[in-house]
């Protein structure tokens, strides 16, 4: 009996000693890990859930869409792609499953979500189409003017660049035109910063800032080129196709905080909460927002990219001549 007790006590001592050793190693490992200077932890837990703690997917997973896809938008659950052939595709963001193809107008170009509905600009017919996001039902087509570009939503209204130097403000609830406001030459894309609407003027290389409440012009800023635009929470990022650059512009006053070289013909741009992603003729470029450093480039069979969107975990981009949308 004494032998049994002694053996039992010995085993307990050994177990406790091993436990202490494991704790010591764990603490040591934690101390060593804190000194590692590799990639910082992701701020987006959705990427962790998808095992995306580093950019392993250099080649996108692609899904077929319509003819000549341009604009891309996310509705909180699904991806919408506007095709120049006159349709818009709806894909499930989780796996790319096709959920429908819907007729819109002539030469569909831009696509924007208003919280419940999808708006598509139709270059060839000078109007915009409103579709119910849940089922794609056509809720109306509203005339604006020649060559409507990429739109933005300000929380209550849809802003549509169009014509030689105008942007229209449409009430999102019913499409009522609340007025058109003068901007620069050949407006093409727009973005909302929480209080103001910014419009890129492709014809004269400027960007115009309008107060969303009444359309008052708050400034025109010359960047030497302006095309795609996105807001990062404090700054506007604006691509210039002619100079193959992207500029970081402080939203509060229009000060240019930096201009960075990117691959040829940059097009659409989106912010993912940490980095800026740019579509263009040679593929997709990922730029670090804090300093403009290129941290990634992605290609698909040499095809040009145009529209780009972020779904909370992945980047979606339209490959114009391949008639596909890619997920990165």
Question: Can you walk me through this structure?
Answer:
The chain contains two helices and 28 strands. It is mainly β and 328 residues long. The chain folds into two domains: 36 residues; 282 residues, YVTN repeat-like/Quinoprotein amine dehydrogenase (Methylamine Dehydrogenase, Chain H, 7 Propeller), CATH 2.130.10. The strands form seven sheets. A four-stranded antiparallel beta sheet has the order 1-28-27-26, with no helix packed on it. The relative contact order is 0.12.
- Number of separate strands: 28
Structural class: mainly beta
Order of SSEs: HHEEEEEEEEEEEEEEEEEEEEEEEEEEEE
Computed over alpha carbons, the radius of gyration is 25 Å
| Global morphology | globular
Quickly give the CATH architecture of the largest domain. 7 Propeller
* CATH fold-level label of the largest domain: Methylamine Dehydrogenase, Chain H
Tell me the β content. over 45%
Instruction: Quickly count the helices.
Output: 2
Q: What is the CATH class of the largest domain?
A: Mainly Beta
Termini separation comes to: 67 Å
| CATH homologous superfamily descriptor of the largest domain | YVTN repeat-like/Quinoprotein amine dehydrogenase
């Amino acid at each position: 009996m004494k032998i049994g007790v002694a053996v039992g006590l010995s085993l307990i001592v050994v177990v406790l000693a091993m436990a202490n050793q494991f704790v010591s190693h764990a603490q040591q490992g934690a101390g060593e890990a804190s000194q590692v200077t590799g990639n910082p932890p992701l701020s987006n837990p959705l990427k962790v859930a998808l095992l995306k703690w580093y950019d392993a997917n250099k080649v996108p997973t692609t899904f077929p869409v319509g003819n000549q896809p341009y604009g891309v938008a996310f509705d909180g659950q699904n991806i919408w792609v506007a095709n120049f052939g006159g349709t818009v595709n709806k894909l499930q963001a989780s796996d790319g499953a096709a959920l429908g193809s819907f007729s819109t107008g002539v030469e569909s170009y831009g696509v924007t979500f208003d919280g419940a509905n999808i708006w598509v600009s139709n270059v060839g017919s000078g109007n915009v189409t409103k579709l119910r996001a849940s089922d794609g039902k056509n809720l109306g087509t509203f005339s604006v003017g020649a060559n409507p570009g990429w739109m933005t939503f300000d929380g209550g209204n849809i802003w549509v660049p169009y014509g030689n130097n105008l942007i229209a403000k449409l009430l999102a609830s019913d499409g009522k035109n609340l007025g058109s406001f003068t901007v620069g030459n050949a407006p093409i894309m727009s973005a909302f910063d929480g209080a103001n609407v910014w419009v890129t003027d492709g014809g004269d290389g400027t960007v115009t800032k309008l107060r969303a409440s009444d359309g008052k012009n708050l400034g025109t800023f010359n960047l030497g080129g302006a095309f795609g635009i996105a807001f990062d929470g404090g700054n506007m990022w604006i691509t210039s196709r002619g100079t193959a650059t992207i500029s970081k512009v402080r939203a509060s006053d229009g000060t240019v905080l930096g201009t960075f070289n990117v691959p040829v013909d940059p097009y659409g741009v989106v912010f993912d909460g940490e980095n800026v992603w740019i579509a263009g003729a040679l593929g997709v470029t990922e730029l670090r927002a804090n300093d403009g450093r290129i941290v990634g480039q992605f290609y698909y069979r040499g095809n040009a990219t145009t529209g780009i969107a972020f779904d909370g975990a992945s980047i979606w981009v339209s490959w114009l001549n391949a008639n596909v949308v890619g997920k990165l």
